[in-house]
Specification:
This protein is an alpha/beta fold. It has three domains: 51 residues, no CATH class; 185 residues, Rossmann fold (3-Layer(aba) Sandwich), CATH 3.40.50.1100; 103 residues, Rossmann fold. 34% of the residues lie in helices and 16% in strands. It has 13 helices and 13 strands. A six-stranded mixed beta sheet has the order 4-5-13-10-11-12, with helices on both faces. It has a four-stranded parallel beta sheet with strand order 8-7-6-9, with helices on both faces. Helix 9 crosses helix 11 and helix 12 crosses helix 13. The longest helix is centred in the middle third of the chain and has 15 residues. Bound molecules: zinc ion. The site of zinc ion has 8 residues, from helix 1.
């Protein structure tokens, strides 16, 4: 099928470049994302973020409080997901309010669509012809779908055990699958492809890991604005994390709102991991270390920690919470009983809330939001064993 070329998105004229998260050095926007060379020379592997010129006096309404790289960009209707108020679960877990931000309502069923949409816009802006990424599931389906809709190619570096439900979707959308035994192999493939003209690497391809494409991660910032509009400013947000794209995007969105005077304080971000990685770094471990572990929470597997994660947790006074698979399954049964379908790593957020209440990191008068990254429908760990 030959489709008309998708029109170029409108780049935000205020986008002035990419800035280091650590040293603030400014660099041009490119299709590659190799982090800050100055910090790398000093031994720190640090991602860059989008940097914008200051807002004009009339720009404090709507999304303008949160600058985005493109507007209008490329969209399939992602975002504006529902916030489910869960009063019974709030009472059960001993907090004043509990909201579930349901990212499964995005077009391909996960939060990844927010990132993919901006990534596709950047690919179109820079005349790329193919998205390339490493993914075990949700990001791959999202990229394949958006690339197909935009008339771009899509290549996915994945692993042998990719669930058939994902593989079928990728095949149907014309995405090419390349199978590798581990993350290092997948990232090497993406990195190699990213060196060729016309390829745009959506996800991380560096070891030590840096995170996904900086402009694409900006796509998560609007979650902050939606949370505020849905239910007011939460005290705490509980977020499943692998390498921290989502958590950092939420952090950056709230930071924009703080800078624009729309909020008076930041919510504390709690990053939920299936085994100790960020937790070990926060306890003094090396940020660039390898922290392997096995988990059925396949969306948050992996052995690496990024500066993005570290910043999202530490800059908000939050932290990391380890939730093992059995604890996550117990939490998922509670969510299922409450009518909420959750992939296992998202259910882990509810178990994390229990830990945070028990340690008084979250108090009884708190307003808490859980990020439901995807539902259980494509999760290979679903259904849970009966009890
Ligand atoms: Zn730097």
């Amino acid at each position: 099928m030959v489709r008309d070329r998708t029109p170029k998105p409108a780049r935000n004229p205020r986008l002035r470049g990419l800035q280091c998260l650590r040293c603030d050095a400014l660099y041009p926007v490119t299709l590659t994302h190799d982090g800050c060379p100055a910090c790398k020379r000093a031994g720190f592997h640090v991602a860059l973020r989008a940097s914008y010129l200051p807002e004009g006096p009339d720009g404090l309404e709507g999304h303008d409080a949160i600058p985005m790289p493109y507007g209008p960009g490329f969209t399939l209707g992602e975002g504006h997901t529902p916030m489910h108020e869960m009063p019974a679960l709030a009472a059960q877990f001993g907090v004043a309010r509990l909201g579930i931000k349901d990212e499964s309502c995005n077009p391909t069923g996960s939060h990844k669509d927010r990132m993919t949409a901006v990534g596709v816009a950047q690919a179109l802006d820079f005349d790329a012809h193919t998205l390339v990424l490493a993914s075990s599931g949700n990001a791959a389906v999202s990229a394949a779908h958006y690339a197909w809709a935009a008339g771009l190619g899509c290549e996915v570096a994945t692993y042998e055990g990719m669930p058939a439900t994902y593989a079928r979707q990728l095949d149907a959308l014309g995405a090419r699958r390349y199978v590798f035994a581990d993350n290092a192999g997948r990232w090497a493939f993406v990195r190699e492809r990213s060196q060729h003209p016309g390829y745009f690497a959506l996800t991380n391809y560096r070891l030590p890991a840096l995170g996904s494409a900086p402009l694409a991660i900006e796509g998560y910032k609007t979650i902050a604005l939606e949370c505020l509009a849905d239910s007011g400013l939460p005290d705490h947000i509980v977020i499943p994390t692998a390498r921290g794209d989502l958590a950092w995007g939420i952090y950056a969105g709230f930071r924009d709102l703080l800078a624009a005077g729309r909020i008076a304080r930041m919510p504390r971000l709690w990053l939920v991991e299936p085994f100790a990685r960020l937790s070990r770094v926060l306890a003094g471990g090396a940020l660039n270390g390898s922290y392997p572990g096995h988990t059925a929470q396949f969306s948050t597997a992996g052995a690496t920690v990024t500066y993005l994660q570290w910043q999202a947790a530490t800059a908000t006074g939050g932290g990391a919470v380890v939730v093992g698979d059995e604890e996550a399954r117990t939490a998922r049964r509670l969510l299922t009983a409450a009518g909420v379908s959750a992939e296992l790593c998202a259910a882990a957020g509810l178990a994390a809330l229990r830990q945070l209440r028990e340690s008084d990191a979250i108090l009884a008068d708190a307003h808490v939001v859980l990020m439901l990254t995807a539902n259980a429908s494509s999760d290979p760990s679903w259904p849970d064993r009966p009890v």
